[in-house]
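Database export, one record per block. Field names are fixed; values are copied verbatim from the stored entry.
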Amino acid sequence: MTEFYRPEKPSRTAFPIADAGYPFIFAAAFTTGVLALLGLAVWTIIALLITFFICYFFRDPDRAVPLQPGVVVSPADGKIIEAKNIADSRFFSGSCIKVSIFMSVFNVHVNRIPHEGTVKKIDYHPGKFFSANLDKASEKNERNAVFMELENGRSVCMVQIAGLIARRIICHIQEGDRVARGQRFGLICFGSRVDLYLPENIELKVSRGDRVAAGASVIGNWP
């Protein structure tokens, strides 16, 4: 029987929203109020719908995280667009397994830690804004790489990648931080992608086309 735990305290509201979303929500709500005062009914309705969508986009639900040892959980909500062995990468020394997760504007965009460990390095790189589901997005787009050393001595790397309309990558953790599996660590605004680089001896539990939830879905485990 699988056991679960919560890495953080439960939210105090029934519909938790990520802090980064409040400026967007307040701006949309203010615009809606102004349009309503001006008597522009159609534009008011459109602005109200946009406000509701922004609230939906920045939702930040609590997650129950699998507790069993050796499990790596998904760092993002979305669809697996790549899950394969690669010979080499700038984000991992030697051959490894690369898992790419595409987040549409309808997915939760809060990112979570895949496995407990220590943050060894954070490397932000400015870049372009190709559609995040394209292969070249991994190398060409704006990105933020988080390199981690796990308690079992292994290493993993997760890369937050901006997408076509994403213009802001948020990362709350710093080098030297000890982090827990399933812990929130950042988000990417308005459509994006997260690449996860794992040692090749991990037993992969997902394949291309699967849909995963950050912190809850198992990406793989060590035998």
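Remark 1: The two ends are 17 Å apart (CA to CA).
Remark 2: The chain has a mean pLDDT of 89.
End of record.
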